[in-house]
Amino acid sequence: MINKGKSTEAVISSCNIDFNNDVVVRLRTSKEANMPPIVSTKLYIGNLPETCRRVELQNLFEQYGKVIECDIVRNYAFVHFENPDDAKQAAGGLDGVDFEGAKLKVEVCIIVLPHLLASSLALL
């Protein structure tokens, strides 16, 4: 459990950090609080079969929109869409789908800005 004293509360308030059961669920600086949220076009695809080829995976995801990059790393991959709405729809439509005998795990990647990550780690 995170012990939030008065000085920590002031930092939390100034950085717009929200806690839900002691888990940081949003982190933005005061300056960024008035900016729209960052929307990711990058998907993580887990549980890929060993036989998976990039072109086959890319074809599967292109059903949802224009794929601008598709990279396979062992049994997982990253697929980048041109449009964030397409990425979100693909994640919802393909998570749990059977692909070449494996049940895919598809998630929208979370974008963490380095200076915000350092700030959040200093608080914990």
From TrEMBL:
<dbReference type="InterPro" id="IPR050502">
    <property type="entry name" value="Euk_RNA-bind_prot"/>
</dbReference>
<protein>
    <recommendedName>
        <fullName>RRM domain-containing protein</fullName>
    </recommendedName>
</protein>
<feature type="domain" description="RRM">
    <location>
        <begin position="41"/>
        <end position="107"/>
    </location>
</feature>
<dbReference type="InterPro" id="IPR000504">
    <property type="entry name" value="RRM_dom"/>
</dbReference>
<keyword id="KW-0694">RNA-binding</keyword>
<dbReference type="Pfam" id="PF00076">
    <property type="entry name" value="RRM_1"/>
</dbReference>
<dbReference type="InterPro" id="IPR035979">
    <property type="entry name" value="RBD_domain_sf"/>
</dbReference>
<dbReference type="InterPro" id="IPR012677">
    <property type="entry name" value="Nucleotide-bd_a/b_plait_sf"/>
</dbReference>
